[in-house]
Amino acid sequence: MTKSFGSTPGGRDVLGTCRLCGADLHHVFVDLGMSPLCESFVAADRIDEGEVTYPLRVLACEFCFLVQLKAYVRPDAIFDDYAYHSSYSSSWVAHAKAYCEAITQRLQLNARSSVVEIASNDGYLLQHFGPLGVPARGIEPAANVAAIAIEKGIETRIDFFGADLAEEMAAEGQQADLIIGNNVLAQVPDLNDFVEGMRILLKPEGVITLEFPHLARLIAETQFDTIYHEHFSYFSLLTIEQIAARHQLRLIDVEELTTHGGSLRVYLVHASSTRPQHPAVPALLAIERAQGLDRVATDSDFAERVVATKRGLLSLLIELKNQGKTICGYGAPGKGNTLLNYCGIGTDFLEFTVDRNPFKHGQLTPGMRIPILPPEAIEIARPDYVLILPWNLKDEIMTQMAHIAAWGGRFIVPIPEPRIVTPRIERKGMAS
Question: What is the DSSP letter of 371?
């Protein structure tokens, strides 16, 4: 049965305008109800105060195919004091280190090169260029996380990136051989200003690399919890090609990554650059067209599968609680807060959740108000089940927490469909 990639009940009502091409938006991709900002954690002494919630209704453009949320909140309200610190995921830091080593070799970067990372967070990535002898600086709007990078000795400019800042930096002689943007493009409400800024800051033969969750994987694996207000846009390679062309940039390569449930790393250069295009680009564009990502009417039943996943998870949790089982969460990520709020999972299901980030300890999750504790709380409580909220890091987490098997504990992985996983215990170097 062919379904709409997203359609508006009752006809062609205009739901807004596309942030990339300006076209009227008529198509609903998925509606996840109302939700607070996913990183707006609630202090324990504010438990009796209200929270502002906004629609999580995702729209799709029929002209440039950008999947997007309306920008209900200004970026400075989200990122001025940000709770997310990249360094608390060891696998993500390892991913960043491997990238730095590979891109240094690929582009032959050296002490005369200039590297700029946009949204450099706490220096999780740029710290790896120092040992390679490559000068690197960051741009980070969240002062609290930028301060950590600065303490590490990483030159970091506290500001929002766009065309004006790029002009200023270029005038200061700070154009870059390499511009890095990992998981930042989705968080930019003014895409055209941001991409134009990268064009201005890039040297004539420089390279831009961007990483972002791949829309095709989001659809195929029902990754609805990747959707939250801090993520304004969701990208296919087809849309990235259009973004590049609008700003005299050109796609020269793409890599499919396993991070964040399936991401793309794209390589952009000036349209006038002599760098050749890798065959991976037309190959993946052809695959996306075959998947129907170049039209809003496709065979996706994404919205229906989202509802089925919600019902399946709630059915599992209800069954376990009816059996008298205890359940806690692991992690307090943005995606976890979308899942908790959309599914209505509160302390009636999860007694608490834990997180490695000490800045979240003692706070409550947005909306559902679940207490966030240090990971050691799991050893004290010894729950029967641990619901992994950052399921994209499930392998890392299940390795770290394999010892819950000692009391018969098991994991619940919610995406792409809810399932129970028994921990694997390592004995004398062998998995049992």
Answer: B
- Do the beta carbons of residue 390 and residue 338 sit within 8 Å? no
The sign of the CA dihedral 154, 155, 161, 166 is negative
Does the pLDDT at position 8 exceed 60?
no
Query: Residue 29: what residue type?
Result: F
Are 393 and 69 within 8 A, CB to CB? no
Residues whose CB falls within 8 Å of the CB of residue 89, separated by 6 or more in sequence, listed in order: 390, 393, 396
Give per-residue pLDDT as tens, 329-357.
999 998 999 999 999 999 999 999 999 98
Contact between residue 357 and residue 88 where contact means Cβ atoms under 8 Å apart: yes
**Contacts for 81 with CB less than 8 Å, ≥ 6 apart:** 142, 143, 144
Q: How far apart are CA 225 and CA 71, in angstroms?
A: 18
Instruction: Retrieve residue 398's tokens.
Output: 């299940």
What's the DSSP call for residue 58? E
The answer to whether 368 touches 341, Cβ cutoff 8 Å, is yes
Percent of all residues in the chain with a pLDDT value above 70, rounded to a whole number:
91
**Quick one: tokens of 325?**
């089982």
Residues 139-185: tens digit of each pLDDT: 999 888 899 999 999 999 999 999 999 999 999 999 999 999 999 99
pLDDT digits (tens, 9 = 90+) for 16-52: 999 999 999 999 999 999 999 988 899 999 989 999 9
User: Which residues have a Cβ under 8 Å from the Cβ of 184 and sit 6 or more positions away?
Assistant: 118, 119, 210
Q: Give the residue from 50, 9, 55 showing the smallest Cα distance to 33.
A: 55
Six-digit token string for 165: 């800042």
Indicate the pLDDT class of residue 80, thresholds 50, 70 and 90. low
pLDDT at 188 over 60: yes
DSSP string covering 80-112: SS----GGG-HHHHHHHHHHHHHHHHHHT--TT
Exposure string of 89-98, with b = 16+ CB inside 10 Å and e = fewer, is: beebbebbbe
Whose structure tokens read 């004398």? 428
Query: Cis omega (within 30 of 0) on the bond before 416?
Result: yes
Instruction: Give the gyration radius of the chain's Cα atoms.
Output: 22
Q: What is the pTM of this model?
A: 0.88
Tens-place pLDDT, residues 59-78: 999 999 999 999 888 766 66
Q: Which residue has the tokens 């950590």?
A: 148
Distance CA 169, CA 147 (A): 20
Residue 176: which H helix or E strand, with range?
A: strand 176-182
